[in-house]
Amino acid sequence: MGDITNKNKETLLERKRSKYTRTVSHVNDELHSFRSYLRWMCVDQSNPFTAALSWFVFLLFAVAIPAASHFFLACPSCDAKHSRPFDAVVQLSLTSVSALSFLCLARFVSKYGLRRFLFFDKLCDESETVRMNYMAQLNRSLKILSWFVGPCFVAEGAYKIWWYASGATQIPFLGNVYLSDAVACILELCSWLYRTTVIFLVCVLFRLICHLQILRLQDFANFFHVDSDVASVMTEHLRIRRHLRIISHRYRAFILLALVLVTGSQFACLLLTTKPTNEFNIYKTGELALCSMTLLSALCILLRSATKITHKAQDITGLAAKWHVCATLDSFDGGAQGDILTAQISNERSFPIVGTDGESEADETGDEEDEINTTKLIPSYAYSTISYQKRQALVNYFENNRAGITVFGFILDRSTLHTIFGIELSLVLWLLGKTIGIS
Predict the structure, then answer these.
(1) Residue 157 falls within a domain, yes or no?
(2) pTM for the complete prediction?
(3) Is the Cβ–Cβ distance between 292 and 196 less than 8 Å?
(4) Which domain holds residue 271?
(5) CA–CA separation, 261 vs 295, rounded Å?
C-alpha cells in the first residue's frame, strides 16, 4: 500500500510539473509560427543560447547603435535641413520604452512560457467557439503588428534615405563616403525597426490576451439564455475574474511605466518645441513627430484593450439584472395564470424589438450595439428552478464584485481614462504657461 501511495504521489507531482513546464514547439503546434517569429526577432528566451542572443541583439540595436548615431552622426555643423536638434529626445524615448517592453517580454516568456502566457493551457476548458475565434485572432495578431510597424518604418526609411543621400558630404563618415553612409543608414533603420517592433509586440500580445477574455465573457453571457443554475454561473464568473486578476498582475507594472515614460517623452518634446528661439520645419521635427505617434499608438492599444475588457466584464451586471427582471415578471405571470400555461407562453413569447415610433433598434444604435448586454429582453427559462432570493443574491454579487483590468487596485475603465486625460491636460497647460505664457 505504501508503494502504491508513493507512486500515486509521484504521478500527481509529475502532472503538476508538466502542466507548468514549457511546451516544445513542433510541426502541428498552433504556436509554431509565433515562436518562429519570436526567434527571427531574437526575443525568444526559451533556452540559454537564445537568451544570450536576445540580450546581445537588444544591446546592439536598442542601445549601441542609437548611442553611436547620436554622438557621432548628430552633425551639428550641417545645414538647417540636416541638423538634428531633437535627436536625443527621439533616441531616449524609443530606447526607454523598447527596453521596458523587452524586459517585460523576456520575463513573461522565461517565467511562464509562451503557451502559459497566452493562456493556451486553459483553452481545453473553453467552448469550441472560443477556441476557434482565439486561434483566428492569434493568426491575425501578426498582421495587426505589421499594420502598426509598417507605416512607421516606411516613413522613417524615407526620411533616413533622404537625409543620408542629400547630405552625404556633410555627414561624418569613415573611408568611402557612400559605403559608410549606406552602412550607417541600414543600421539606423534596423535599430528603429527593432525597437518599434518590440514595443508594438508587447502591446499586441496584451490585446490578444484581452480578446480571449472578451470571447469568454461573450460565451459566459449564454448562461443567462439557457436553463442554468446559480452555482454554475458563479463558478464560471469566478474563473473569469481569476484570469483577469492574473492578467492585471502581469501587466500592471508595464502599463504604469509605459504611461509614465510616454508622458515624460511627450512633455520633453513639448518643452523643446515651445522654446521661442527654435526654428521648426519638417526636416527637423519630422522624426520627433513620428516617434511621438509611435509611442502614443502603442499606449492607445494598451488602454483601449484594458478599457474594453473592463466594460465587457461590467456589462455582465446589467445582463444579470435584466435576466432577473424578466424571470421575476414571468414568475408573477405564472402565479396568476398557472405554472404550466406560463411555461408554454414564455417559450413561445416574442419580445418586441421595435421602438415605440415603429423604427427598428438597428436604425438607432447602428454598430454600437453591445454583444453581451443588448437592448432585447430575455425569455426566462430559469424562474421555475431558481428562486427569487437566489437570483437577487447573484445580481448583488455582480454589483459588488466589479471585474476588469486593474493597475495596483485602480480599475481601468472610461472614468479612469477621463481622470488621466484631465491630469495630462492640466500638466500641459501648466507647462505652456511656463514656456509661452498661456494662462
Answers:
(1) yes
(2) 0.81
(3) no
(4) 31-224+252-304
(5) 9
